[in-house]
Amino acid sequence: MKGPRPLGIVIKLGTSSIIDATSHEPLIATLSLIVETAVRLRKDGHRVVIVSSGAIGVGLRRMDVENRPKHLAQLQALAAIGQCRLIGLWDSLFSHLRQPIAQILLTRNDIADRTQYLRAQNTFAELFDMGVIPIVNENDTLAVEEIRFGDNDTLSAITAAMIHADLLFLMTDVDCLYTKNPRQHPDAEPIEVVDDINALEADISTPGSALGTGGMSTKIVAARLATSAGVTTVITRSSTPDNLVQILAHIQATQGNSLLQKSSSFASIPAAAVPSASSMAPSLSGSTTLTKPPLHTRFLPWPEPVRDRSFWILHGLAPHGTVFVDQGAYQALVERAGLLPVGVVDVEGPFSENDAVRIVVVDRKPAASADGTTPAITTPSVVASGTEVGRALVKYSSTEIARIMGHRSRDIQGILGYVTSEYVAQREYISLFRRKDSRPASPSLRDKERDVAHHHQNHHQRVSPNQKAATVAVESPLHKVEGLALNSESSSRDEPSA
C-alpha cells in the first residue's frame, strides 16, 4: 500500500530556542535533537527547511558582550560575527549524520524583486532535488529597517509560502496557545485547532526574549500569513523537537484529505541515503496506530490559498503609498476587473510607476443634485470605509494618478499628454485579501477526528468561526491581531530576528 506523499516542512527556531539567554551558549542538546528530527524527516522523503535565528546571540558569546546592543551598526556587526559560527555549528551537527546543508540569507529586498524571488524558489527546488536541508536566516548584516522582515516568524511564513510547503512549525517556549494565562487561571484551556484566526480568543502576550524581537503575537501574524498560502501552521514547544514526528503523524491521520493530497509545483524527492541515529523511531509512513499527540496548536490552512504572484504582491512587497478607491471600484476588483482611474478617490504617496501600493476602500462623498439640495444615489458599501482590501503594482506615479483620478480612461491622453495604460493597475498585478465570510469551517476534519477519538482523550479546546470573533472586514495576514486576550505567559523568552 502506498504511504503518505512527501511533504514540504519548515521548522522555525528562535534565538531563545537554541541559545541560552544568560550565558549565550548554544543549547547543544536541543540542537542535536533538532538535527536528528530533521534528518529523520528527510529520510522519510520530506522536503525540510530550517529557519534559524541566533546569529546575534552567538555573536554576543563570541565577543563576550553581556547585553544585546541598541545601535544598528553594532547589531549588524555581531550578526556578521555570529552567523558564520552559527552555520558552522549547524554544519558540524548535521555532518555527524552525513546530511548536507546549505545557507540562505534573505532580506525583504530579495523577496521584493520578482526575478530574485523566482530565483530563490528555483534554488530551493534544486537543493531539495539534491537532498540538502537549507538553513535560512535574515541577512541582518545588510538589512536595515526599511528592508527587514522584522522577525523570523514572518520570514518563516514567507519561506513556507515560497516553497509551497505543507507545514510550518513555529517552535517556542510554550506548548501551545491557551484561552487564558494558565499560570494565573487554573481553568485555562489549551487550544488544539484553530479554524479561523479571526475567531481566536487566546493568550498571545508572550513577549520576545532579551536576545530577540519576536513573541507570541508575531506567531499569530505568521500563522495568518502562512495559512492564507495554504500552509498548515503549528505552534509547539522547542525544547522537545522530537515531538514534531508525533505531531506530524497525528496531522497526517486527521487532516489527510486537505494536507496529503495538496498539489505542489515542487517535485517530491526520494529519501536521501542517510544513516539512522540510534534515537530514531521507525519511519512515519510505517505508523498505523493513532496516539494522543504532544500538546500543540494547529492553524488550518485556507481551502483556496493565495500563492505565487498573488502572494508575492500581497506579502513580498513593501507598499510605497496608498490608492483610495470607491465601493464600486472595489466591487469591480472583486469581479476580477482592473482598477480604472474613474474609481480612484484619492492618492497618498509619493510613489513611482510599478511600485506596490495599498488599496483602501472609502465612501465617495455624494455629489449634490442640480438644485444643490438632494444628494445623488451612491454605491452601497461593500466593506467598511477605510478598509485596506489588497495591494497592487501601479502603472502611474502618485503625481500622475492625482491628476487622472475620477476621470475616464479616454481622458488620460488629454490630461497627461500620453497614455501608459488605460488602468491605474492591471488586474494581473492586483491581489486582494480574503474577505472574512469566505473562510468556512472544516466539518470533514471534525468528522475524521471524531471517528478516531477513541484512540485518545480530547482535552483540547476547539475554536470555531461560530464563536464570538473579532470584527475584521478583510482577512489580511499582516493586519494587527484583534480581539485577543493579552495576558502574560512568559516574560523572559521567545523568538528573535537574528
From TrEMBL:
Chief place where the protein resides: cytoplasm
Disordered: annotated span: 437-498
Compartments where found: Cytoplasm
Single GO MF descriptor: glutamate 5-kinase activity
Cellular component GO terms, alphabetical: cytosol
Domain called PUA: residue spans: 321-425
InterPro entries tied to this protein: AceGlu_kinase-like_sf (IPR036393), Asp/Glu/Uridylate_kinase (IPR001048), G5K_ProB (IPR041739), Glu/AcGlu_kinase (IPR001057), Glu_5kinase (IPR011529), Glu_5kinase/COase_Synthase (IPR005715), Glutamate_5-kinase_CS (IPR019797), PUA (IPR002478)
Keywords recorded for this protein, A-Z: Amino-acid biosynthesis, ATP-binding, Cytoplasm, Kinase, Nucleotide-binding, Proline biosynthesis, Transferase
CDD domains: AAK_G5K_ProB, PUA_G5K
Biased composition (Basic and acidic residues): 437-454
Similarity section: Belongs to the glutamate 5-kinase family.
Protein's UniProt name: Glutamate 5-kinase
Organism: Sporothrix schenckii 1099-18
